[in-house]
Every structure is written in structure tokens, then in C-alpha cells.
């Protein structure tokens, strides 16, 4: 029996198996090692609606809980991105007498703090306790709960309809999509907009960024699959916009069916996806072959450097790096430690491969000869602040879109 599509119940055809993987954001203490959770990370395409998705689900409470360690405000580029985004969303509901903005996955308040500062009614849904508390410290109104059909209905009852429902890097995390879209249908005002942005499958294939595939990233959206996904809920995809953040994303704007005319960008992106062959098995199998090639190249480089006695340090203990390190068998023998600015990750071990995580300051103490850039989506920001590394003779190793040293 093939796996079943979480959107349309169609048959899902697997095209890439990334093997046994741990929870990507479970940074471990020595005591945690014995009970580490693993699952099979594999991805397939629905032969009916073209949605690309994982074939196995990890229970949501194992991923999003009190100690979830990802803080969105850790990147200055992302802080700026969300401030600009918040201003754009506020402009879109400026004509309403008392607008109401809801965010799904509001994390540490990186977006809603600008909405709050503008004095606009808002609410964030954020199930992960400590990041939600960080937002509340900024005065952001947060419900420490998962967004779904029931919690959305309760908010509609208490606060009334939402003019804007926004989500970044969250909708693709949610396998129970029918409940989400039912929730949007219950909460959204008649002329409201549901806007979400997530890593774009077209960029993932074009850049062979297979590390975007991990437990939390359940769906890999295209304009075509999102259009089909929302249509079953009386909703319509009315705009798409490509974004440079996190290695390439698309922002999807959804309205009630017939409420707003779709922009030309929707049809143009769907046509570009057809030309790229994003729903074709031949393209998807080529992506799997490219992924295997990147693994072989990265393994060969790291093994050669080990033989030469050259130290390699990882930069950024990203969730994505769990896929790379576990798929490629990169442990502390090949990468001596990973530095990261997040206090909740420091002093712990990376999931599955158990590489120590150290504070960012450890990077320069002293600089290693090679750094493996796990946070490649933040390359510009990191290279700008780590100029001393290159000046010391250090070299960056990257693996997107292919393995290269610079
Ligand atoms: N929006 C932020 C950003 O773009 O940086 C945070 C993204 S973070 C990768 C995903 C967030 O979604 C986590 O904080 C997680 O706790 C939250 N989340 C997961 N499932 C959710 C749900 N059903 N409703 C609301 N938030 C959810
Ligand atoms: P992300 O790619 O999922 O946003 O995760 C980025 C990780 O990299 C996160 O743990 C924070 C860390 N990081 C640094 O250590 N230094 C930096 O300059 C940036 C931007 C991120
Ligand atoms: Zn489907």
C-alpha cells in the first residue's frame, strides 16, 4: 500500500529516502542519549494533487513543546524581513475600523511585536512554551496552543473574524492541513486574507537543497499544489511572490473564492513549475540522484581533510543540518564542534550525530582552517560578521547548490 496524501487521499509515490533520522531540533544532554527518537525520513509526490510530502509523520508534541529551541529573532536579516512584512500586512488592513491580525507560529514575536507597536489588535498561536513566553515579554498577545479548526473557532467566538491570518515557516510544518484550512475558513473575515510563506520546492530542486527536508518540514509547496490544496475549502490562491529568505521561499496569498481576482503572477508561476517539471517523476528522481552526488562529494572532502589533519568546525546548529549530518554520516570525527548563537542549543549535542554545540565565540578561539556552513541560508549575514575568519586564512565549505570551498 503506498502512503496516502494528507491533502487529497491520493497515492503518494516516494522518490527520496534520507534514512533513519532523529528529531531535527532535539539538542541532547548526555542523559538524553539513551532515549533518542528516530524515524524514517522519506519524501514522495501525490500522483493526484502533486503535493510533495513526507511519507512518515512525527507526532507534533515531540517537535513543538516547552523547550523548542528555535528563536526566529536570532538573525538580523530575518528581524528586518518580518518588520517589513508586518508593515505590509498592516497597510493591507489599514481601512478597517478595528483590524485584527492573527499569526500562526508566532514564535518569539519577531513579526507581531511590530503589529503590537502599531496598536493593532492581534493574537499569536504558538504552542512552544518558552518561545511563546519570549513574545509575551514584548507585550505580544499569545495563545500557547496549536492552531487548528477548534482553537480557531474559539478565537472567532471571542475576538471576532481576522482581517489577516499570517504564517511564516509554519504551514509547511503541519500535516493535519484539513483542520488548518477549516480553521482559516472559520476565522477569516469575508474579505480577509490568509498569507503564508514557506520554502519553495522549485528552489529546493534547483539548488539540490535536500537539507530543507526534515521532520518539521512536512510539505514542500508549489503554486500548483497550494492552489489545489485550498480550493477544497472555498478558498482561492490569489497571489504569489518569490522571496530570497531561507534559501528561497514563496509567499502565498489566499482569499475566499471569488472575493479577489487572482494576479497574473499565479498563472505565471504555475507555468514555470510545469516547465521545470516539478511534478514529474523524472525531475524528482534526478533531484534524488543530485542529492546522492552531493553526499558523496561532501563525504569525500571531509574525509580528505581529516586525513590531512585539518580541523573542520560547523557553523550554525540548524534543524536542516540534522538531515545533512545524519544522511552523510558526519560525526565529531569529521566536524569537531558546531558553533551557534542560541543559548538553548549550546552545551548540548547535535541530534543523531552527537557533535558538541558551542557558543559563537568558540569559533574564533582560535579560528579553525575550515568551517562547514550549515546555516547557508544566512550566508550573507554570517560572512559579513565573520570577516576575521577569512582574514585568518580560514575557508568556508558549502554544499548548496554543490560542494565548494571558498
Ligand atoms: N514564524 C517564525 C519564523 O518564521 O521564524 C517561526 C517559525 S518556526 C520554524 C515554526 C513555529 O511554528 C514554531 O515556533 C512552532 O512551535 C510553531 N507551530 C507548529 N505547529 C503549530 C500550529 N499548529 N499552530 C501554531 N504554531 C505552530
Ligand atoms: P535557521 O537556518 O533554521 O534559521 O537556523 C539558523 C541557526 O543558526 C540558528 O540556530 C541560529 C544560528 N545562527 C548563528 O549561530 N549565527 C548567525 O549569525 C545566524 C544568522 C544564525
Ligand atoms: Zn494529493
Automatic annotation (TrEMBL):
Q: Which CDD domains match?
A: AdoMet_MTases
Domain (C-methyltransferase) spans 244-401
One Pfam family for this entry, by name?
Answer: Methyltransf_13
Boundaries of every Methyltransferase putative zinc binding domain copy = 5-64
What protein am I looking at? Answer: NDP-hexose 3-C-methyltransferase
- Natural source organism: Dactylosporangium siamense
